[in-house]
Amino acid sequence: VTEPVRSVVYVNGKYRPSEEATISVFDHGLLYGDGVFDTMFASYGYIFKIDQHLARFARSLRAIRLEIPTPIADLRRAVIDTVARNGLNNAYIKVVATRGISAEPLLDPRGCTPTVIIFARPYLSLADPAKVSTGLHAKVTSIRRVGMQALDPRIKSLNYLNLVLARMEAYAAGCDEALLLDDHGYVCEAPGYNVFLVREGHVVTPAYSILEGITRETVLELSAELDIPSEIRAVSPYELAVADEVFLTSTAGGLVPITRVDGQAVGSGKPGPIFSQLTRAYDALQESGRFGTQITRAAIG
Ligand SMILES: Cc1ncc(COP(=O)(O)O)c(C=O)c1O
Predict the structure, then answer these.
(1) Which residue from 41, 48, 126, 211 has its CB within 8 A of the most atoms of ligand 1, so it is best to mutate?
(2) Which residues form the pocket of ligand 1, taking CB atoms under 6 Å from any ligand atom?
(3) Strand 91-101 and strand 245-250: pairing?
(4) pLDDT (tens digit, 0 to 9) for every residue of the chain, 301 residues total?
(5) Is 6 helix (H, G, I), strand (E, B) or coil?
(6) What is the spatial distance between Cα 83 and Cα 50, in angstroms, rounded to a whole number?
(7) The whole model's pTM is what?
């Protein structure tokens, strides 16, 4: 396996060629998963909802009491610069902040110097495009989502092992994706995605134990614009079995249909009409540039 091809990466205020963009092996982000991140994307030359992503990033930082020296307004400029410097119109963009390094690599968050990284790659999707057209097969995993009593899923932290293990369980069962339940047994999310289902013309999405997804929020906004009623509430696994449609939402992939759950077809077994309607509206929204911030080379300072 090779590294991604050369690009320009922002590390602690400096832009470096990716092969020179290094951080310490003693970084607490690596040693303890002590850090947070956010993933955004650009399409048609616009970064989608950059301020909503940076507001969520700021909330994640605050929730883990991590203070970085860069104000969010400067970070915003750096995100646009990083995409511009890589010459990308369609991009997968990640902002990462870790507790950084301290005098000794011990589990002590005090006295650390934080690390801030921004990178942009040509757009990447979590799901295989060939599978997206026909629908993914999902497994409701035995691994539950970490509860908010332990680590609130609203924090977009560097602790994704819970989700990685769920995904491995799904792959081992011959499925494409995992669906996780929370510690009360309600459906919450998938690794890197929020979950929606459709019942009797209503779109339904779990209320709790989830990351507050920007794509989820967008799908709810589009549903309102399209006069599709929506419900934000507890969702039990029973509802996956009786749903007409199930789909996932993520910055990295947009809307992704699930056509089989635990071996049973969802509805007709094909991506459904409401999924298709919302996907068309989501694509049109990207093309329109609404909620978009233009990637201007002028931003390079
Ligand atoms: C755990 C988790 N849930 C949901 C999502 C979807 O959120 P968004 O639509 O903001 O990408 C993500 C995406 O990054 C995630 O990591």
Answers:
(1) 211
(2) 39, 189, 192-194, 211, 213-216, 249-251
(3) unpaired
(4) 666 778 999 999 999 999 999 999 999 999 999 999 999 999 999 999 999 999 999 999 999 999 999 999 999 999 999 999 999 999 999 999 999 999 999 999 999 999 999 999 999 999 999 999 999 999 999 999 999 999 999 999 999 999 999 999 999 999 999 999 999 999 999 999 999 999 999 999 999 999 999 999 999 999 999 999 999 999 999 999 999 999 999 999 999 999 999 999 999 999 999 999 999 999 999 999 999 999 986 544 4
(5) coil
(6) 12
(7) 0.96
